[in-house]
């Protein structure tokens, strides 16, 4: 008797695609929907895992956009501390698509948040980028100058982007009650002062994340109708949850919502592709081998594996003029991993 | 007559010329040049049982050849002509696009003072570690100021560019001096009147042309060296050791 499950590609069957293989052999897990070439202008944003993706594009000599590049000759270890050389502008980690959408609205003037500064011990912090100056700005004027320049660059970003890569990180976030502006970190963790009369916890639902993502896609396509989107979900679990649940189910909920949204976007939009970095690290066939001993941080080996799967799938077998990521020394990989700036680490260090 | 050894890089040339031009010497100076330039952020010294040793092979070789020794310890008094120049911030054309946040300019990217200070701190680290190594072995030493730069050296610099460079150089110099003061390390500064209010040097005390014919924007001449040696001599003779 004939039926649709007969004669499918090997990748369609769990046995031939997963259980008969070593997890490291799952290299056909991603089939690009559209070609990605070195001539495409690529922009990256998202949670801290997205830094690995941006770094790989740069190392492999893709046309990676950075509209707020570092000054010449800066020490590599200084860069991430100041939000430099991380993404396509100095916006730091963007954990939710609402935050991404809000950034572009702030840049084009369609949204102006009411709270624009956090002051602490005579230093001034941007509530929407609290990590980009490790000890805050020295004056309100300095902060405002930097923000004005930053938003000018953001307003230009979509105009020069061919491929927008976004890594979805979290559904949990913190919102300013007065105007609904979403903050990248809970006030009081990196900067600011927590006040439950001013701020509220919000766990974005599937419907909200989907609506925000569709609004972002629509906005970006208005600016560049040919833009392509590559979405991923960070495999890094929550450091902590404010949902009242245990952190494990809270993490699974969060990632499930994000993965579900990416699936819907992938099916609906021909311009949207999904790269399964989340599955390549966190799915059970990997047996957690790509996590650090805390089962949260992704090891250098895991990052290299994920990146190799991605670049192999798009037809790139190694950095142009450099070594493939998996041939780097373990020491070099560990150093790079250390340099990845993750706001959540601050929460882990000071949140107890 | 007291003796002092002066160690450093290319700025030793002016000091040596000034010393040789002195009609009457107040101290006996021996010059120990390590290399032509020191624009590396990496440590160049380490503490060993015999004292502080230089780690770059070139420094080690030059030091040994010029002193017959391999280490700095408490035996001699040392003047160190190094530190306080923001070599990375002064490099390249980046300030044609950017400005320190305290010197805002329309159309230029503002750079926070914290970032500028972080770069300066990284640039000073090796020299500061050298000083700490010397303190650790009980060496007797002091630092000698490098001259500032000449106004408008860089081609195409606008007046605003010039002010930016001066601002950066002065800040780096002040921060280095502040660190030395906090560590209780003596510092022989450039005589008053040789720098203008922006921190640029009086060209009459500057070399202006390198031996190879290229423009020289930051090295003093014999006249500068002579004034500095007089200051160094006064300082050395004022010491009780």
The CATH class of chain B, by name, is: Alpha Beta
Helix-strand pattern of chain B: EHEEEHEEEHEHEEEH
Q: What is the helix fraction of residues of chain A, given as a range? A: 25-40%
Low confidence ranges of chain B: none
Beta-strand percent range of chain B: 15-25%
Mean pLDDT of chain B: 90
The coarse overall form of chain A would be globular
SSE class of chain A: alpha/beta
Report the largest inter-chain contact: A-B, 21 and 20 residues
Structurally, the number of domains of chain A stands at: 1
Low-confidence stretches of chain A: 321-339
DSSP helix count of chain A? 10
Q: Please state the overall shape of chain B, judged from the principal axes of the Cα atoms.
A: globular
Strands in their spatial order, largest beta sheet of chain B: 2-1-5-8-9
Looking at CATH, the homologous superfamily of chain B is SGNH hydrolase
Widest beta sheet: strand line-up of chain A: 2-1-5-9-10
Helical segment count of chain B: 5
Rg of chain B, rounded, reads 18 Å
Distance between the termini of chain A: 61 Å
- Approximate helicity band of chain B: 25-40%
Describe this entry's structure for a reader.
The complex is a heterodimer of chains A (352) and B (241). The radius of gyration of chain A is 20 Å and the shape is globular. Chain A has 352 residues and is α/β, with parallel strands linked by helices. Chain A starts with 13 loop residues before the first helix and ends with a helix. Chain A has one domain. Chain A has helices at 14-19, 50-59, 97-108, 140-157, 206-223, 247-268, 277-282, 300-313, 330-339, 343-350, and strands at residues 41-46, 63-64, 118-120, 123-125, 163-168, 172-176, 182-183, 199-203, 228-233, 272-274. In chain A, α6 (247-268) links the parallel β9 (228-233) and β10. Chain B is an alpha/beta fold and 241 residues long. Chain B has one domain (3-238): Rossmann fold. Chain B has helices spanning 12-21, 57-67, 113-136, 159-182, 222-238; strands at residues 3-8, 28-33, 45-48, 51-54, 77-81, 98-100, 109-111, 140-144, 187-188, 206-209, 215-220. In chain B, the strands form four sheets. In chain B, strands 2-1-5-8-9 form a five-stranded parallel sheet, with helices on both faces. In chain B, α1 crosses α5 (222-238) and α3 (113-136) runs parallel beside α4. The longest helix of chain B is centred in the middle third of the chain and has 24 residues, at 113-136. Chain A binds chain B through residues 68, 71-75, 78, 81-82, 133-139, 141-142, 145-146, 149, and chain B through 41, 88-89, 91-92, 94, 98, 101-102, 104, 109-115, 118-119, 122.
């Amino acid at each position: 008797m004939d039926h649709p499950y007969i004669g499918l590609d090997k990748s369609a069957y769990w046995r031939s695609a997963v259980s008969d293989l070593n997890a490291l052999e799952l290299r056909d897990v991603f089939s690009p929907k559209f070609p990605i070439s070195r001539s495409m202008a690529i922009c990256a944003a998202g949670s801290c895992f997205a830094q690995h993706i941006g770094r790989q594009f740069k190392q492999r000599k893709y046309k990676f956009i950075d509209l707020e590049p570092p000054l010449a000759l800066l020490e590599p270890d200084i860069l991430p501390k100041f939000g430099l050389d991380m993404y396509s502008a100095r916006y730091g980690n963007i954990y939710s698509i609402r935050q991404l959408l809000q950034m572009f609205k702030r840049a084009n003037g369609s949204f102006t948040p009411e709270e624009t500064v956090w002051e602490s011990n005579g230093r001034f912090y941007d509530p929407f980028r609290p990590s980009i100056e490790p000890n805050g700005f020295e004056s309100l004027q300095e902060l405002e100058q930097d923000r004005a320049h930053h938003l000018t660059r953001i307003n230009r970003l979509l105009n020069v982007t061919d491929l927008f890569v976004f890594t979805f990180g979290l559904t949990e976030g913190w919102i300013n009650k007065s105007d609904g502006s979403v903050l990248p970190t809970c006030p009081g963790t990196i900067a600011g002062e927590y006040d439950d009369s001013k701020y509220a916890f919000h766990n974005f639902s599937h419907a909200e994340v989907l609506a925000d993502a569709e609004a972002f896609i629509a906005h970006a396509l208005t600016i560049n109708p040919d833009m392509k989107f590559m979405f991923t979900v960070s495999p890094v679990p929550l450091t902590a949850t404010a949902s009242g649940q245990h952190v494990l189910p809270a993490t699974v909920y969060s990632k499930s919502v994000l993965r579900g949204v990416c699936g819907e976007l992938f099916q609906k939009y021909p311009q949207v592709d999904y790269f399964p970095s989340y599955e390549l690290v966190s799915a059970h066939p990997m047996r957690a081998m790509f996590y650090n001993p805390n089962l949260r941080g992704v090891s250098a080996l895991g990052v290299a594996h994920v990146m190799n799967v991605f670049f192999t799938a798009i037809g790139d077998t190694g950095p142009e003029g450099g070594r493939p990521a998996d041939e780097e020394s373990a020491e070099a990989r560990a150093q790079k991993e250390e340099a990845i700036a993750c706001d959540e680490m601050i929460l882990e260090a000071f949140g107890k | 007559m007291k003796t002092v050894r002066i160690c450093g890089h290319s700025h030793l040339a002016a000091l040596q010329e000034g010393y040789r031009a002195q009609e009457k010497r107040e101290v006996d100076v021996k010059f120990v040049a390590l290399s032509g330039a020191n624009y590396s952020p990496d440590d160049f010294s380490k503490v060993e049982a015999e004292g502080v040793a230089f780690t770059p092979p070139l420094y080690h070789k030059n030091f040994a050849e010029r002193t017959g020794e391999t280490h700095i310890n408490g035996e001699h008094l040392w003047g160190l002509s190094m530190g306080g120049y923001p070599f990375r911030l002064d490099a390249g054309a980046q300030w044609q696009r950017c400005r320190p946040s305290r010197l805002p300019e329309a159309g230029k990217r503002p750079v926070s003072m914290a970032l500028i200070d972080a770069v300066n701190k990284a640039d000073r680290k090796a020299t500061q570690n050298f000083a700490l190594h010397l303190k650790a072995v009980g060496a007797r030493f002091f630092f000698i100021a490098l001259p500032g730069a000449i106004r408008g050296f860089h081609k195409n610099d606008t007046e605003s560019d010039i002010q930016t460079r001066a601002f950066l150089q002065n800040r780096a110099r002040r921060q280095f001096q502040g660190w030395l003061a906090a560590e209780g390390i003596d510092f022989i500064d450039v005589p008053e009147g040789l720098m203008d209010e922006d921190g640029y040097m009086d060209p009459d005390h500057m070399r202006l042309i390198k031996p190879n014919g290229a423009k020289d924007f930051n090295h003093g001449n014999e006249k500068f060296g002579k004034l500095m040696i007089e200051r160094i001599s006064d300082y050395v003779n004022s010491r009780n050791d």
